[in-house]
Write a structure and sequence with these properties.
eight-stranded mixed beta sheet, two-stranded parallel sheet, alpha/beta, about 270 residues, Rossmann fold, single chain
């Protein structure tokens, strides 16, 4: 029996993945902000006679303190984590700052993935074939990063924020594998393709119209799920791998620059002190 942790696991692809693992007989820890959606996942698990193999942890992962609470809870309860799926994100048409002083997208889409990956690494290392799957858009130029304004205090653009967060995920994967050079954990960056999933967020009229079009054009969740499970069931042989849908993205070029990854690690460490 595998133990799988899924952020953003109460909606869309995350929910579908959680129920798939439960049908297989595995154990799932689902993390989400909505008590209502969490209750719905638990009810769905009960219908599968899997209510003893699922735990819902309600948490706002845009808060550092909440990430630490989640890590402490999982560490105290489970001896091993086989897979960590990082899928939580939340679109914001206007800039928002958390109670801890971080721009909300930066905190949820990047800092949370940093904290959970490193925080659960000891449990992942106990698994036979441990994998971290980061659902982001790998590749792209480093110019997407505003090094002098990572949290978009000037000229906030939700689309630019989301693109930057995807780029930060690339560098997070690089830095993670450099920090644990002898670990068996495989770090996978995957964009499964435009999918008709939850699209949770706070939208203005213009962005809501764009999202409606994306829902119409997006592939079914079941198609994305096949791509996700491919890498979870058969982790790559290399410490870091990246994929755009079914295509491999090389991870030794400029988008995955080692110096940039180290720079981001230093900045992150300073921010979290």
């Amino acid at each position: 029996m595998k133990t799988v942790v899924i952020t953003g696991g109460t909606d869309g692809m995350g929910r579908a993945l959680a129920l798939t693992y439960l049908r297989r007989g595995d154990r799932v820890i689902v993390i989400g902000t909505s008590a209502r959606k969490g209750r719905a996942v638990l009810d769905a698990a009960a219908e599968l006679d899997a209510d003893q193999r699922i735990e819902f942890i309600q948490a706002d992962l845009s808060l550092v303190v909440e990430n630490h609470r989640v890590i402490d809870r999982i560490t105290a309860t489970y001896q091993v984590v086989d897979a960590l799926v990082l899928g939580a994100r939340y679109f914001r048409a206007t800039r928002s700052v958390t109670s801890e002083g971080f721009e909300a997208n930066f905190a949820l889409f990047y800092l949370s993935r940093y904290l959970l990956g490193h925080g659960l690494a000891p449990l992942l290392d106990q698994a036979d074939a441990p994998v971290i799957l980061d659902l982001a858009g790998p590749g792209g130029s480093l110019s997407l990063i505003r090094w002098d304004d990572l949290q978009f205090e000037r000229g906030y653009s939700p689309d630019a924020v989301m693109r930057q967060c995807g780029k930060l995920s690339d560098l997070l994967g690089v830095a993670f594998t450099r920090r644990y050079p002898h670990s068996r954990i495989r770090y996978v960056l995957l964009h499964p393709g435009l999918t008709a999933t939850g699209f949770t967020g706070e939208y203005d009229a213009a962005s809501a119209e764009v999202v409606a079009g994306m829902r119409e054009r997006g592939q079914p969740v079941a198609v994305a799920l096949v791509r996700i499970l491919r890498h979870l069931d058969h982790p790559p042989s290399t410490p870091l791998a990246a994929f755009m849908q079914d295509n491999t993205v090389e991870v030794d070029g400029e988008p995955f620059d080692l110096e940039a990854a180290d720079r981001l690690s230093r900045i992150t460490s300073n921010l979290l002190r």
